[in-house]
């Protein structure tokens, strides 16, 4: 059954299908099938090199052919496996049967066919396949998208390092900063979150039905199966899986690393929710304008509107992603006794959780590319907020022992419209060194930014 994108149940495969094209081959069911074939092939080839008299080392031609099945795995191959599954009603067994069917006309492989899926439980194949999917999605989609956002924001931090901006703690006027410094805060947070995602070790186990190599030792009692399994899992692709070895498990890999990974992605997403809301507010204040797109409409009735839709879309999709990621991280590490199936259907939604994140990152990138700084609005806001200089004035007064410094400035400024001349009159009356007086008299809201510019440039 072929559906058009407009008939898709999920907007990830409907309205936003094109935006998620890089993720779909990795996290779809086809991607899952692909990785299962990869695991079965790697295990099979490794078994041929184990020194068992019943399974001689495969010829170079056979190895090339098998690795080619992985490298060239197609949608047609995935559909062929699904056709077999209609009979088996078991997806891993369908992969095994499909792989054996590819051995036809190759006597060397036909003779060794019973070593396909040898001593494995389905979860030996599934857990490593999931790890390979996450590895590819992290390396090819999630980290590159975050890296792009970090670099875009870093460019903004540097470009606007010296542009003063009124802060708004509690939504009220507060000590000035610079536009670049506020963006730099996001850069540093997001860069650290990105590193936490990259640092998570992706684990795999291949130790049988309950994690003890029972069937393995029944077949070959004197063989070091744990070392063999470790080698298959840790050897880099394409001859191995390039994962970290999980020595202790029940039938399933415990999924703690998945929880760690999904929590790390959710943390990055939360930082971007924070930024989405902040930049939405800055657009509302007029600090940023948005570049117009020919033919684009902001409202069906209000022609003047240019809405910050990209940041709104990003915030909404980040929320969807985090809701799923949190369920994944809370549910997956829990399994009744040695195995239950509650994780199976949940794991099939990993791509959905990451898909909403990738969609949000895309929207964020588009939104950032539309931003134009409105220096006039920033300067006007600062010029209406001379009360922010109450902080430096009272701090200098305290340095020189002027009694009641805070209280005197509070009396002059709190809840009042403060004019430059009001502050100048106060400064002129202060018993402080003349050099300090002149420094305070020269200060403006736009010049009172501390180390903001330097911090922005260092990001």
UniProtKB/TrEMBL annotation:
Gene behind this protein: purB
Family named by the database record: Belongs to the lyase 1 family. Adenylosuccinate lyase subfamily.
Matches recorded under Gene3D superfamilies: Fumarase/aspartase (C-terminal domain), Fumarase/aspartase (Central domain), Fumarase/aspartase (N-terminal domain)
GO biological process, one term: IMP biosynthetic process
Example of a GO MF term: N6-(1,2-dicarboxyethyl)AMP AMP-lyase (fumarate-forming) activity
Listed EC numbers: 4.3.2.2
Function of the molecule: Catalyzes two reactions in de novo purine nucleotide biosynthesis. Catalyzes the breakdown of 5-aminoimidazole- (N-succinylocarboxamide) ribotide (SAICAR or 2-[5-amino-1-(5-phospho-beta-D-ribosyl)imidazole-4-carboxamido]succinate) to 5-aminoimidazole-4-carboxamide ribotide (AICAR or 5-amino-1-(5-phospho-beta-D-ribosyl)imidazole-4-carboxamide) and fumarate, and of adenylosuccinate (ADS or N(6)-(1,2-dicarboxyethyl)-AMP) to adenosine monophosphate (AMP) and fumarate.
Enzyme class: lyase
Pfam families from the UniProt entry: ASL_C, Lyase_1
Domain Fumarate lyase N-terminal, chain residue ranges per copy: 64-316
Name of the protein described by the UniProt record: Adenylosuccinate lyase
Residues spanning the signal sequence: none
Protein's organism: Ramlibacter aurantiacus
InterPro entries documented for this protein: Fumarase/histidase_N, Fumarate_lyase_CS, Fumarate_lyase_fam, Fumarate_lyase_N, L-Aspartase-like, Pur_lyase, PurB_bact, PurB_C
Organism superkingdom: Bacteria
GO cellular component, one term: cytosol
Residue span, Adenylosuccinate lyase PurB C-terminal domain: 335-449
Keyword entries, A-Z: Lyase, Purine biosynthesis
Pathway where this protein functions: Purine metabolism; IMP biosynthesis via de novo pathway; 5-amino-1-(5-phospho-D-ribosyl)imidazole-4-carboxamide from 5-amino-1-(5-phospho-D-ribosyl)imidazole-4-carboxylate: step 2/2; Purine metabolism; AMP biosynthesis via de novo pathway; AMP from IMP: step 2/2
């Amino acid at each position: 059954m072929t559906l058009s994108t407009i008939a898709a149940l999920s907007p990830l495969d409907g309205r936003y299908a094109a935006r998620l094209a890089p993720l779909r081959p990795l996290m779809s069911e086809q991607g899952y099938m692909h990785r299962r074939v990869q695991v079965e092939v790697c295990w099979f080839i490794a078994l041929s090199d184990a020194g068992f008299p019943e399974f001689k080392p495969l010829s170079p031609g056979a190895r090339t052919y098998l690795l080619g099945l992985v490298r060239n795995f197609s949608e047609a191959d995935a559909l062929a496996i699904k056709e077999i599954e209609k009979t088996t009603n078991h997806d891993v067994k369908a992969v095994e049967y499909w792989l054996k069917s590819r051995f036809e006309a190759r006597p060397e492989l036909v003779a060794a066919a019973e070593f396909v899926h040898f001593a494995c439980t389905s979860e030996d194949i599934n857990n490593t396949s999931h790890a390979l999917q996450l590895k590819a999605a992290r390396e090819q989609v999630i980290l590159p998208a975050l890296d792009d956002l970090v670099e875009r924001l870093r460019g903004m931090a540097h470009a606007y390092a010296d542009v003063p901006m009124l802060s708004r703690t509690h939504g009220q006027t507060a000590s000035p900063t610079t536009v670049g410094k506020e963006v730099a805060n996001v850069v540093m947070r997001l860069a650290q979150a990105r590193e936490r995602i990259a640092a998570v070790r992706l684990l795999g186990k291949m130790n049988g039905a309950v994690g003890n190599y029972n069937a393995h030792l029944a077949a070959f009692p004197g063989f070091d199966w744990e070392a063999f399994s470790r080698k298959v899992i840790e050897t880099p692709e394409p001859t191995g899986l390039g994962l970290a070895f999980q020595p202790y498990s029940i039938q399933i890999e415990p999924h703690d690393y998945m929880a760690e990974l999904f929590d790390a992605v959710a943390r990055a997403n939360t930082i971007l929710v924070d930024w989405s809301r902040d930049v939405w507010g800055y657009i509302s204040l007029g600090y940023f304008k948005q570049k117009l797109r020919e033919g684009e409409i902001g409202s069906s009735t209000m022609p003047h509107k240019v809405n910050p839709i990209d940041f709104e879309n990003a915030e909404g999709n980040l929320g969807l992603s985090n809701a799923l990621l949190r369920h994944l991280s809370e549910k997956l590490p829990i399994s009744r006794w040695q195995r239950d199936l509650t994780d199976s259907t949940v794991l099939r939604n990993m791509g959905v959780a990451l898909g909403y994140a990738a969609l949000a990152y895309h929207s964020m990138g588009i939104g950032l590319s539309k931003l134009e700084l409105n220096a006039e609005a920033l300067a006007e806001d600062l010029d209406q907020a001379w009360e922010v200089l109450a902080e430096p004035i009272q701090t200098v007064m305290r340095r020189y022992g002027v009694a009641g410094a805070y209280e005197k400035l509070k009396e002059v400024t709190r809840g009042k419209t403060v004019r430059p001349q009001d502050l100048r009159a106060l400064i002129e009356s202060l018993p402080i060194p003349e050099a300090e007086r002149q420094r305070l008299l020269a200060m403006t809201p736009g010049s009172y930014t501390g180390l903001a510019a330097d911090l922005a440039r260092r990001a």
